[in-house]
Amino acid sequence: MRENRRIRRAQVLRSGTTLAIFVGINLLLRLALTPLNQAEYTDGILQLTQFANQTGIYPPLYTALTWPFAFLVGPLWAGRLVSAVFSALAIIPIYLLAKRSFGARAALFASLIYTVAPVSLRWAPRVMTESVFCFFFWFACERLITARATRNPEETESALMWSGVLGALAALTRYQGVFLAPPVLALGWVLYRRTGKVPWKGLMGLIPYGLIPLWSAATNTIHGGQLTERMGDVPFMTFLLNGEPFVLLFPYFLTYPVAILVTMGLCKGRPRPRASLLPLTVYVFSVLLVLQSLFGSFQERYFLPLFGLFFIYGGLGMAVLDHILRRRQPWLRPYVPITVVTWCVFVSFFVLLGGRQAFGDIRFASEFAARTANEEGGRIFTNEIYRAERAPSGKTVTLIPGVLNASLGVSASDAIVANKVEFFARRNAFYLDNEYYEGRLPLRKGDLLVMSQIYGLEAQYPVLSRLYDLESVAEFNARVYPIYPDIMSIPGTAQNPAAFLYRYTPQDFTTVVLRVNGPRVQ
């Protein structure tokens, strides 16, 4: 008995040391990447600022995590640091889940794959919810598998409860986390059938899910309307047009060496008793594929929770291959992880560098316009728009002055405009709507216009130049290589599987800063 305890203690210590080393490596690597990107995507900026300008799009947890740090390092760096730290910590549930299902060696290799995987490194330094969401999502999955595998009724209920709590936290980060609730209910039903008692303690973990409809009602979430709009008239065709390319490109996003290892893990690996990960993986794959395909937005980041589960199978495949080589060709053993890591780093390098300038032209133009406007006393206008006008049904309610505005059932925001320009300029910016192009609202001498190509500069400039004497004072350019789906300058390819065809084609973007020198003399 004492010998068994000593062995278990040594195993725990060894696993803890391995995990701590991986967490440290991931933390250093991801923090080192935080200065890489020139700007941030629209979603990221809206997530950072939603407590002050509610949009009805996002749950609150990511914003709440960044908000305290914003007072110390500013909102941009607060978002990047939270993403990087949670991306590093997400290796903990990956390791524990792999170890629980397939053993310590598979956990070691799964952690290695996650550390260098392009899809994880790409979003680690970005102001986006993906890293925080995956941390809670994978931990909820780990607790769910633990609840299924353990034989102690008390430990089972505790793990089931934490699976519900962590799933709710995932859902409060991204609404997709809601679909983690059904597996908890299903396992609760299995336990009831097995024992004849309702596992109340385990099911209490579902209580925090009640916060999600409350938040949705308070902010008048628009996701239902978005899904209905994007599904189109023939939802099945929308599903096929987005779902089929994702299935076909899934090995590309995993990287081909990892995809081969995943196949080997699925075919040759054997899970530990009562700890099979396959049913949960099939469930997550099916739900994400259907929902995101119908949503009509082809971006691999939406499937990042699924990638984590496949990294575990990749780790299992590497462990199986390592076991085979140890018996037959031991000299080849080191070359398998070396090849996988080298290829993943190679792909990650181009993915990270290819997208680092996204919206950089808008950021630098906004900062330049802010400096110039401060010196000359002009106003800043822009053509940047994210969402067109919604019909308002009431006024916004201020819950915390200067911090949190919500609608409590009415429209919180009629339109989303100028958000990136305002964020990077750190001052108010006005959207150039139709009244300015028609001359019903005049521009003043000294006003500055931040005009981006992707928001219609080429069509808008001739109209404005007929009304005003415009002087180009600065031009800023950005170039993106969409190795993985990114913003696109080719019309009709953004958030579309067609972007894959242009993954090596440079996408060039331009933002100009124009000064209004007065009305055009007729």
Quick overview:
By secondary structure, the chain is α/β, with parallel strands linked by helices. Helices cover 60% and strands 9% of the residues.
Describe, in plain words, how this protein is organized in 3D.
This protein is an alpha/beta fold and 522 residues long. The protein contains 22 helices and 9 strands. It has helices at 2-33, 42-49, 61-73, 75-89, 91-102, 104-116, 118-123, 130-149, 153-171, 181-195, 200-203, 211-219, 223-231, 235-254, 256-268, 278-295, 304-328, 335-355, 360-376, 419-425, 434-437, 457-467; strands at residues 380-382, 385-387, 397-400, 404-406, 416-417, 430-431, 448-452, 468-480, 507-519. The strands form 3 sheets. The chain has a 5-stranded mixed sheet with strand order 6-1-7-9-8. It has a two-stranded antiparallel sheet with strand order 2-5. It has a two-stranded antiparallel sheet with strand order 3-4. Helix 3 crosses helix 4 (75-89), helix 14 (235-254) crosses helix 16 and helix 15 (256-268) packs across helix 17.
Q: Which assembly state applies to the chains in this document?
A: single chain
Mean pLDDT: 89
Instruction: Work out the strand percent.
Output: 5-15%
End-to-end separation: 98 Å
Main sheet: strands, sense, barrel: 5 strands, mixed
Instruction: Please compute the radius of gyration using only Cα atoms.
Output: 25 Å
Strand sequence of the main sheet, in spatial order?
A: 6-1-7-9-8
Uncertain stretches of 5 or more adjacent residues: 390-413
- Coarse shape: globular
The number of strands is 9
Structural class: alpha/beta
| Helix content range | 55-70%
Q: Please report the number of helical segments.
A: 22
